[in-house]
Amino acid sequence: MRHGKKLNHLGRKSAHRKAMLSNMACSLIQHKRINTTLAKAKALRGYVEPLMTKSKTDSTHSRRTVFSYLQSKEAVTELFREVAPRIAQREGGYTRIIRTGYRLGDNAEMCMIEMVDFNEIYTNEKAKKTTRRSRRGGKKEDSDATVVEAVETAADEATPSVEAEVVVEAEVVEETAVVEETPATEDAPAAEETSSDEPEATSTDEATEEK
Question: What pTM was computed for the model?
Answer without folding.
Answer: 0.57
